[in-house]
Amino acid sequence: MIDSREYSIDSNLIDNMKHIISVILLLSTLCMKGETGYDLWLRYPPVENSRLLKEYSSKNKNILVLGDSPTIRVASEELERGLEGMLGYKPETGRRIGKGTVVIGRHDLLPSGCRVDPEGLGEEGFLIRSMKIEGVTATVITALTDKGVLYGVFRYLRLLQTASPLADLDIRDTPGLNYRVLNHWDNLNGTVERGYAGYSIWNWERLPHYKEQRYSDYARANASIGINGLVLNNVNAEAKSLRHDWLVKASGLADVFRPYGIRIYLTAKFSAPKEIGGLPTADPRDERVRQWWKDKAREIYSIIPDFGGFLVKANSEGQPGPQDYGCSHAEGANMLGEALAPYGGIVFWRAFVYQNERHIDRVVTGYNEFKPLDGKFRENVFLQPKNGPIDFQPREPFHPLFGSMPDTPLAMEVQITQENLGHAGHLVYLATMYEEVLKSDTYAGGSGYTVGRILKDYARSHHGMSAIAGVPNVGTDLNWTGHLFGQANWYAFGRLAWNPDAGAEEIADDWIRMTFSNASGVTEPVKEMMMMSREAYVDYTMPVGLNHIMNFGSHNGPEPWHHDPSWTAYDYHKVTADSIGVDRTPKGTGATLQYHSEVGERFADLSTCPDELLLWFHRLPFTYRMRSGRTLWDEIVTRYYTGVEKVGEMQDMWSKVEGLIDDERYRHVKELLSFQKREAEWWRDACVQFFGSYSGLPLPEGLTPPPHPLEYYKRIPFPYDWNGYYD
Ligand code: BDP
Question: What is the pLDDT of residue 725?
Fold first, then answer.
């Protein structure tokens, strides 16, 4: 029998325990304070694992800084900040080596007895090595330049952030591409073209005098992933950005970014000599025009001595260009290249051109325009195509210019901003898309000539001219990118620019660890969610190679029915009662012929064309039998439905991290995922109804039909306001 007194003592004990546990839980919740996301992947929270904390602390007792320069100062400040945050104490920064010293500084300043081989490190590479110096074990972070040291410091901190061992370090790293540039599409009035995270972060009104803290934080974040160039303004340029007063403003930003190894660039409007130079023409053959650009370059370098150069969108979507004067793109680009050459500046000349004529397949126009110009550009000019031949669609084959321009260095342009990928409302991890294009084999010199390799190889054949450009997704939103997971795309772009051979998954892993936690309860579900997200997006918007069926103006939401004289979605899907897709084989527009034969023939042959690109290259009857055994119609519909289901799975995965990360970021993502689900259903239902209105075919068995008729979806306004409209 139970003694009632004993029993009551026990129950008191249990109550007390419960109380203690709830206090602990409360305290830990309070400790897990909400985070806005502003700190990005540079949060430096305390190391939780006590074994690691001990190891890290013993290897980071003090810091020895060699040399002095603005770059070395930001490197040592970053190291101090990171170590203090993660280890809970501030290592002493001194001038002596002891056990557990971290030595940072240029190779030529290292103490004797601390010899490393810096050969091949170039301007940006670095070494991190555990070494015995003066009888004690220290960690040396060194490079040929201070900038290399800064990159090494960020890399070292990443080791701690990702709970990696610090024993016996021997890391040697150099960037795969030399120009790793963000192309801001920021307008001078503070808006951002295709930006979904608020307004431009450049406060032109107060520049150059007032330098916001945000600029340095932006510089740190970019340096941490190896970005070394920023184009400040939109490719749809305004000439006035080259006016003296605006150059002075830009110099304020250049001053902030310089210590972080980041140069600034500007877009150049081709008509600037007319618009702000008072000349009657911008003809590149006119001596006065050439002289104007030379004078302008001299003026720019007198204000910004390390100015990077120009990015130019010419004769594209209404922008002025050399063709206005009967000159070629090369003649226009070379004029600017010539003006910048004396100062070491370069030109990024965009290859995004297409005719607004319906009878010409847009996919073939970029190649047709630029292929004949191979080898005709000056040596300080990059040609910059987008990753694919249309325009930043959720899935495109690689641009056929990659592998076709051996004598012209190409810089690949990708979007980080999600213009056609759900804006900042959808969680879409883009590194898988970047990886897909970088690893695409062009067969330009036999098998293995991937796009990534081609980009890298230009450095050897063209005096270091290797590059990649990303259109960023940042704005004035507190978390920089609107959607917290937009940060992952910015981060991954930098990592892939540094190493185009890196994998999307390993980058996601690092980003999650640095952004959220090293706990496997967090890393595993979040990684899985990220890795499936792009395919989910493709499925619920444009499966099986469909593309360019988004809303005409906003580029978000479905509008496969858009049809007006200037632009019609029908050119991209060509749906009729029995067939869908565009024939781009040699029997059609011939786009497959622009690739090396191994690739082109694979795309042109139905038995080898990947399902993912089927309707990009082929026009097929709805009854066509797919590899899955389904008919094409059933495949399209099934993918629309599975895309939505995948978002549901993503929601489930995210729910697993509840309580394991701070509530503020948890809720932000949770709410956006349900928003995404709603939009995914909108895409699915609208597209299934639209294409079904042509095919007249029933849905595959077991699928619930869209709740509304097609007319309902057509009436949803853009930019839409469908609160209460779509339930
Ligand atoms: C399109 C965008 C447009 C850009 C253009 C470009 O919709 O806003 O100006 O590309 O890249 O995708 O120049």
Answer: 54
Max Cα–Cα distance, the chain, nearest Å? 109
Q: Could you tell me which residues are beta bridge partners of residue 132?
A: 137
Which pLDDT score is estimated for 724? 52
Q: List all residues 6 or more positions away from 369 whose beta carbon is below 8 Å from its beta carbon.
A: 329, 351, 353
Q: Is 391 a catalytic residue?
A: yes
CB of 561 closer than 6 angstroms to any ligand 1 atom: no
Decide if pLDDT at 8 tops 60: no
Q: Does residue 517 have a pLDDT over 90?
A: yes
**Parallel, antiparallel or unpaired: strands 92-94 and 62-65:** parallel
Ligand 1 midpoint to CA 179 (Å): 22
Ligand 1 atom with the smallest distance to the CA of 471 is 11
Any atom of ligand 1 within 6 Å of the Cβ of 391? yes
In whole angstroms, what is the distance from residue 580 CA to residue 720 CA?
28
Give dist(CA 666, CA 657) in Å, integer: 8
Active site residue 317: yes
User: Ligand 1 pocket, 323 CB below 6 A?
Assistant: no
User: Is the CB of residue 392 below 6 angstroms from any atom belonging to ligand 1?
Assistant: yes
| Closest ligand 1 atom to 194 CA | 8
Please work out whether the CB of residue 551 comes within 6 Å of at least one atom of ligand 1.
no
Which atom belonging to ligand 1 lies closest to the Cα atom of 391? 12
pLDDT tens track for 336-346? 999 999 999 99
pLDDT at residue 10 in the model: 43
Q: Residue length, the chain?
A: 727
For residues 390 and 400, the answer to whether their CB atoms sit within 8 Å is no
Q: Let me know: does 126 contact 51? Beta carbons within 8 Å.
A: no
% the chain with pLDDT above 90: 89
Say if residue 248's pLDDT is above 90.
Answer: yes
**In ligand 1, which atom is closest to the CA atom of 236?**
9
Under DSSP, the state recorded for 625 is: B
Q: The tokens of 100 are what? A: 């557990």
Q: pLDDT tens-digit profile of 27-81?
A: 454 446 789 999 999 999 999 999 999 999 999 999 999 999 999 999 999 999 9
Which of 543, 469, 21 is closest to 230 using CA atoms? 469
Name, in order, each residue with C-beta under 8 angstroms of 264's C-beta and a sequence gap of 6 or more: 229, 230, 231, 232, 250, 253, 254, 257, 304, 307, 308
55 lines ligand 1 (CB under 6 A): no
| Ligand 1 atom with the shortest distance to the CA of 185 | 9
Q: What are the DSSP calls for 283-294, one per residue?
A: -TT-HHHHHHHH
DSSP letter for each residue of 135-186: TEEEEEEEESSHHHHHHHHHHHHHHHHTT---TT-EEEE--S-SEEEEE--B
Ligand 1 in contact with 313 (CB < 6 A)?
A: yes
Tell me if 235 CB under 6 Å of ligand 1. Answer: yes
pLDDT band at 592, cuts 50/70/90?
Answer: very high
Burial class (CB in 10 A: 0-12, 13-18, 19+), 64: buried
Residue nearest atom 2 in ligand 1 by C-alpha distance:
194
* Centre of ligand 1 from the C-alpha of residue 392, in Å: 9
What stretch of H or E contains 579? Answer: strand 579-580
Q: Calculate how far, in angstroms, residue 368's C-alpha sits from the geometric centre of ligand 1.
A: 20
For ligand 1, the distance from its centroid to the CA atom of residue 362, given in whole angstroms, is: 14
Residue 359 confidence class, pLDDT cut points 50, 70, 90: confident
pLDDT-derived band at 505 (thresholds 50, 70, 90) equals: very high
Mean pLDDT along residues 371-395: 98
Distance of CA 194 from the midpoint of ligand 1 (Å): 8
- Model confidence over 609-646: pLDDT tens digits? 999 999 999 999 999 999 999 999 999 999 999 999 99
How far is C-alpha 309 from the geometric centre of its chain's CA atoms?
A: 21
From 405, 409, 304, select the one nearest 349 (Cα to Cα): 409
